[in-house]
Amino acid sequence: MPPVPACGVHVANRRLGATLATLSCLLPGPALAETSSPDELERILVVGAAPDQASETSGDYTSPANRSATGLSLTPRETPQSVSVITHRRIQDQGLETSGEILESAPGVSMTRSDSNRRSYSSRGFSISSFQFDGLLTPINNFWNFGDTDWDSILYDRVEVVRGATGLMTGAGEPSASVNFIRKRPLDEPQIRAGIAAGSHDRRRVSADISTPLSDDGRVGMRLIAAKDTRDSHVAHLSDDSETFYGVVQAEPSEATTLRAGLEYQHNQTDGAGSGFPLFHADGSRTDYDRSAANNTRWSHFFNETTRGFVDLGHTLDNGWTLRAAYSHDDGNYGLRYLYRGGYPDRYTGQGMSPYFANYRGDRTRRDLHLTAEGEVSLFDRRHELGLGWMRVEDQMTIGLASPRGGYPDIGGFFGDDYHRVPEPDWGRHDTIDDGRIVQRGGYAVARLSLADPLSLIAGVRLSDWEIDQTYYGDRRRYAYEDELTPYAGLIYDLDERVSVYASYTSIFDAQNKRAPDGSLLDPVRGDSYEAGLKASLLDGRLDAALAVYRTDQQDLGEAIPGEEVSGRPGTQAYRAVDGARVEGFEAEVVGELADGWRLSASYTLADAEDADGEATNTDHPRQQLKLFTSYRLPGAWQGLTLGGGARWQSETHRQASSPNGSTRVGQDAYLVADLMARYRFSDRLSAQLDVNNVFDERYYEQIGFYSQAWWGEPRSAVLSLDWQW
């Protein structure tokens, strides 16, 4: 609910006196400070909490509101699209420790890896390329890995996933999903948390989270977070190491103004980096390597390092309108040296694979600026909400490649431990192979119109510009698209106080970074996205349920050409434009609290993608997914114990891969992975949690067919963690 102008700005439970004053304005009768006991006050605060409250203070699987879909603060029932929120409690209960693991747990999102470090995420049959941090758009590059999907989960209060096209908020983007990572902020009360963990594959982790007020009146607060994580892998000679630091200061110069500034740093490093193992022998038969196999060496090394600073200023006017200005600056470094073996090994000697030695170094600078305004207006004796926004994102990137001096060393055979013992070559200088600058600009206007008591219309439009200036392997290319108009409309009808139905529409514009066989960029994808559904708030608001059907039509969609590379660019997949592509699907989700202490998150999604001829497309993404997680805190004498578990099922996937006998279909059958957890709280300050992943040790591929190689999913593993809180 927007602030009530006559009473000033609502202060979100930072200072007791200010909160009481605000509530006394909102509620009739004498001042609450004179009539309410502390227990009564706590009950009132929970009922009347601000929609954007931190999920770590609520302890729920549900979130009361989000801004990721339209920029307006809307409850799930008021949002005419499919929205899922992974709250702080979900992150803790499921033991999700990276942003990638959070995404994999979200309804309808699937992960596919290209190699040890490049992972891509998809929804509704398309790759996710639109990320936000606190609502600031941050496009990612799935080819050059600057760590955009590898952040430590300790930074986030919650993650909001809007499935479907989100052109109103993100401009150019695929009709898959937009992901908004909401960072933690200083808490109202002092808190110190520390954690340690150890587990399978020599897993070790330490973390600390400190929040404290910096002024007596609570107007200034600070939070510092640090984490160190190291682990080996089920893959031979592969290990990961990450360091994360985060600091944020929040100040309230007045009751109407909030200023927040922060700095993030993350360093990820992988020793033994490489690609998947070959699927075929030279005679065309399938290989049968165990789960430790990978196409790497002992000296292979990957790292990314990101430093991000941000400033966020919000101010509420006397008439209740809220203004926001936010700026973010990223500096990223990237490095990869490795040996890629292509081709097919001899069944008996392991010989015959072709080598490609590469040493990449890259730098990236990104600048994001967002300006927004939101408030209420009166029209035709009804109250409506209006939002305005403008953004600019500039992304500059340079990638250099060094090759061995004096030719390639002998790579031996792909058997036993021999393929790890290839010596590292003497590298030459780094020559620039990819130097580009991408700028996105856009402004939007959106209104939530109250047409009648049960009927609301959300209508908006975005005007976007997109340009790229890139030199790729010596070829200069400049593209620009101006005044791209993206309309959005959604209608919501309340059947009663608990159930709503909705329908929405938006257009699609996606400037592709995919290349034809001759190296030219494909034209942007254009199309339309439709969605209709039903949402319900059940059990006195403790449980949210949603059903949705959708259809997406696209033109000029880039589709991989099996076995074909870009001319003169080894290892670069070639694409062709496909007209008449269509995805139709169905989604269902239930999330919340079924009974005291019993929480649930369950979802089923279906995405059926076809081209204009009715042939299946995007078959390397699963058509169907089922995800379930539940936790239960035992009552009575065992109330310190919480038990939980979940399962992830996906339907089969397949793609065409090259083999010695020509193009061959390879795939992954449908599979299910089950996990278990148990947490015991010894006291208000100390708890222990055990997570067991892939309980039944399911054997499955995380990637199959990418350059005729594959990567095994992680076998059974366990992690034991301790958490202290003061």
Automatic annotation (TrEMBL):
Pfam families attached to this UniProt entry: Plug, TonB_dep_Rec_b-barrel
Annotated ranges, domain TonB-dependent receptor-like beta-barrel: 254-695
Family annotation (SUPFAM superfamilies): Porins (SSF56935)
Family matches, as InterPro entries: Beta-barrel_TonB (IPR000531), Beta-barrel_TonB_sf (IPR036942), Plug_dom (IPR012910), Plug_dom_sf (IPR037066), TonB-dep_rcpt-like (IPR039426), TonB_sidphr_rcpt (IPR010105)
Swiss-Prot/TrEMBL keywords: Cell outer membrane, Membrane, Receptor, Signal, TonB box, Transmembrane, Transmembrane beta strand, Transport
Localization per record: Cell outer membrane
UniProt biased composition (Polar residues): 54-84
Disordered: region residues: 51-84
Signal peptide: 1-33
Keyword Transmembrane: yes
Domain TonB-dependent receptor plug intervals: 76-176
PANTHER family associated with the record: FERRICHROME IRON RECEPTOR-RELATED, HYDROXAMATE SIDEROPHORE RECEPTOR FHUE
Family membership: Belongs to the TonB-dependent receptor family.
Protein name, as recorded: TonB-dependent siderophore receptor
Organism listed in the record: Halomonas koreensis
